[in-house]
Amino acid sequence: MANLVAVQPALHQHLLVLPSQIDVHATGQNLIPLIPGELSHVATQLPVVLAKNGQTGQFVLAALTGFTAQENLMMVDGQWQGIYLPLQIQRQPFFVGKATPDAADYVVCIDLDSPATLFSAERSGAQQLPADAETLFNTDGSETAYYREAKLKLAQLLQGEQQRELLLSELLALRLLQPMSLDITFADQSTTRLNGLYTIDEQQLAALPAEHLVRLHQQGLLGAIYAILGSAAQIYGLIARKNKQLGD
Amino acid sequence: MHQQPHTQHINTVVIVGGGNAGWLTAGRIAAKHQGQVRVILIESPGIPPIGVGEGTWPTMRSTLLALGISETDFIRECDATFKQGAKFARWVDGSPEDFYYHPLVLPQGFGKADMAAYWLHGTSAQDMSKAEHISQASANVGPFSSFSNDLCYQEAICERGLAPKTIRHAEFAALANYAYHLDSGKFGVFLQRHCMEKLGVEHIQDDVIAVQSASNGDIAAVQTQNHGLIAGDLFVDCTGFKSLLLGTHYQVPFKRCDDVLFIDTALAVQVPYDTPDAPIASHTISTAQDCGWIWDIGLQHRRGVGYVYASRYCSEAQARETLARYVGPAIADLAVRKIPIESGHRTRFWQNNCVAVGLSAGFLEPLEASALVLVELSAQMIAEQLPATRGEMDIVARRFNETFLYRWDKIIDFLKLHYILSQRDDSAFWRDNRDLTTIPQSLQDLMHLWQHRAPGDLDFTSNNEVFPAASYQYVLYGMGFRSETARQSRQLTNWDFVASQLQQNRKMIDQALTLLPSNRELIEKIRQYGFQNI
User: Fold this and answer.
1) Which residues in chain A are contacts of B534 at CB distance < 8 A?
2) pTM of the shown model
3) In this structure, are residues B243 and B211 in contact, taking their beta carbons and an 8 Å threshold?
4) Residue A124: which pLDDT band, with cuts at 50, 70 and 90?
5) Are residues B531 and A58, on separate chains, in Cβ contact within 8 Å?
6) Rounded to whole angstroms, how far apart are CA atoms B10 and B389?
7) How much is the average pLDDT of B159-173?
8) By the CB < 8 Å criterion, does A172 face chain B?
9) Order of all β-strands in the sheet with B284-289
């Protein structure tokens, strides 16, 4: 569980973030949530699917990285193997929160239990710290370039989530989703059946009246829809990774 | 009025009476014939609906789909919960541990092998170590407990108060087959809004005070208090017990069946939950009493409880006492409503250009929730077979009458089946129920056949069957009836298959118990998040 606290210059002068440890957050996740804006990056390396949250039944847009709940084939020795790391992982260990449930404004929080977070009371022994350690605040209390960049990613994520909700509600309203059913045989002849995943219904999309297509285009969603469709073949890349793992 | 020519098109359907029957019929016709047929519903503003029928069948899912209703909206607005069949308590011998289930999922392996015969054989082998004639093969299969638990995973789900699905299932999809419990009053309001806003049904709030006939005996129009004459090509009588058009106007006789089904009175009460998060039963609980039985239906915010009894065996005061004992001290502050039940139905349901749906067609004790399903089946047949012209109507009417007379007879048979197998001896009510003269010949014949074999699909070959052979099996063997299948023992050779089916059932139980949330928990999630449409 994340241990989130609001970031404050006075308290977190000595807080360090280790960028090399951020990837670790993707370990054990076979579905990594995405926002529409990053689909063009992800779709060239992983299948993009829709799945339902187990607690709420609500749809999530995600990159498929494994064939069982705990499997992430993109992770080797704690490092992400792809060219592009989804924003949901990139943003670690920072989160957006609210000071009180009713507050209008957002505050930036940090997960103190993240493996990428290091709380160093003394910075005297600096030579013992990992070379890539980043601080959030300069000695004069101003924000470092690293922290400003981290906040930018959070803002991007927050905006992207609205765009994602719009995409999901359109996909459902236009009945553009269909369940995926995939039986896969790996190199060692073991088999798996992928259940609970959904993708774009290509026929339904092709039959969509023009006015709906225009609306999707104007909302900037059409590209995302085609990126999801185009990503389907990446399942072979994922199977190849699994076969390689089985062969090792 | 001039005579309606045979080629007169059916352009306008007038439904007299609101309530669930009126709105379901209006909705089905309007949804099927949108833009083609005008649907007008006239409802008396002063008359509250009877509001019986809080239990449905799984057919309600297809009905809601046909009407274009979202399951999430329906559950949120009608106080609805999931129903996975009925638990019959104390029907066999009246003891506290006496119960069986009539679930909504077919017995495991049903249709692939005569599972009931195997089950009967297996239980005999288990019960009687002395029985040499029982093949050795059956000894390794089992252990056997009850028919509904050995062959159906739904009983285990119900016993633990679990829902038939999870929040990840799409609208109307499920792990286990299900129906609903609903608040009848709220359902009527919900249907009305949907029919008017989405399906274009016209609503006139007024009293019908007279009927204007055409020369061929058809109803040409109905006279209303404030809206004048309302003309139509087909009239649907949904006026409840009054049966204004079919009964009063056409004088179609009412066929009583209280010689078979003795119950004639209901005492109904709405019981609030002790706490807002109290468990909700995911099945109807029907508990036999000395002169009838008590229904117990869990909705989201209250339970609906009622004692249905036969007044010739029991005074109202005694019945009230029985109900009070069941509900507990809380009943002191609750309003108990008395509803007369005149068991029976009209001898025809469609006369000229008038068809009755709902209580105006007939009513039976709510033992297997037959009221709403008959409304749905009637509305479906009218909508799907709506004659294009008046000339075709007499044919449709004749077929409708044959279909529904058959259905009423079969329902009466099936309800009676619950009574004739009881061993209860605590009152004349139960003893008289077993008297042969009170059992329809059709049911006696079936019982005769089932002495030596289990009910099978070939016993029920009409397209109009209401209860399948599986339902008869659940009741027969749930109530301890034994078909003597010793003569079949040579044919019962596939014990490996039976073992695998019993194993499969145990596997389904394990899976269901791990996966499914409680009925209450799922209802809360639906209120918060809703189901997806895929």
Assistant:
1) 172, 175, 177-179, 198
2) 0.92
3) no
4) very low
5) no
6) 5
7) 97
8) yes
9) B99-103, B85-89, B284-289, B292-298, B302-309, B265-272, B337-340
